[in-house]
Input
Amino acid sequence: MIPDVQLIKQGAEARVYLGPFCQRQAIIKERFAKAYRHPTLDKKLTSRRVIQEARCLYRCQKALIDTPTVYLVDLDQSVIYMEYIPGISVRDYLVTEPGQEAEAQHRVAVAIGKALGAMHNIDVIHGDLTTSNLLMRETSGAVVLIDFGLSYVSQLIEDKAVDLYVLERAFVSTHPNTEVMFAQILEAYGESSKASKQILKKLEDVRLRGRKRSMLG
Output
């Protein structure tokens, strides 16, 4: 348990706190032990995930993609201290402001598409793209990619297409009547991703497989 912090999210793999770090507010992400795994194996796997997440965040930062800055990685405690970004998730933005102007929604869609294209250009796969993991900065409205807990590095076209498919399913299940917005995301992605033609073609295959699985139950 980390002292003097506020729990803001409890997930299956980690707890996320808001707390102090070097006289500033920070996000503190703590991966916890899994009782069903052997302690030595659990520690090894947890450390690997912590390192992977921090490396993907650093890789994005180096490419000037808007993600939280990593302040400190504590492998002994399986904790990452990172930048706290005041803002609202795209999920909350769409849920609480469903009647926003089409132009404003288009700006958000373009920002998301460009960010995802840039991320895939450096072969980072987010692994958990949802509208909850897209944050809009309070100060500028800029879109920030957050929660890289399942991220990894891959050059495979398939992995990048699946990343987009996961986000598309999040839009379909959580935000009705946003088909136009997602199409705008893909359009902006197509303009920013170096391999967009291959990836978007593969996305069609992934969609088809998804529909077949749904039909078969």
About this structure: The mean pLDDT is 92. The chain has six helices and ten strands.
